[in-house]
Write a structure and sequence with these properties.
The protein is mainly alpha-helical. The protein is built from five helices and two strands, in the order ββααααα. A hairpin with a 6-residue loop joins strand 1 and strand 2. The protein is elongated and about 60 Å long.
Length: 107
């Protein structure tokens, strides 16, 4: 039975005996297996909770109140900018930032 290794970014499984500890990359998301073990990344649930707590500033909510409707493009842009900043700071991977959909708060 092979020693299975799982990429913590995208849950891809492969034979752990074929992974070179120094420069192995996941064939699914191209993130390094060795890199995954050194940093703890946020899950989507954590990012959505953080986004909903901090990203909706008073200026957006006041603007929506004046307009009388939810500003879906502005909410979506804030989500994209938020996830992009988390990716640049190493809290989420490129694969996560590229593949995650907007949360329902952006609808």
């Amino acid at each position: 039975m092979p020693n299975l290794a799982e990429c913590i970014w995208c849950d891809f499984e492969m034979d752990g005996d074929k992974i070179d500890e120094h420069d192995a990359f996941c064939p699914n998301c191209n993130e390094g297996f060795n890199y995954h073990e050194e940093f703890e990344v946020m899950t989507k649930a954590q990012v959505v909770a953080s986004f909903e707590s901090f990203a909706f500033s008073d200026d957006l909510l006041l603007s929506e109140a004046r307009q009388g409707f939810r500003d879906v493009p502005a909410r979506s842009e804030r989500w994209n900018n938020y996830v992009d900043s988390l990716n640049k700071d190493g809290f989420v991977t490129g694969w996560q930032a590229y593949n995650w959909t907007h949360p329902t708060t952006c609808d």
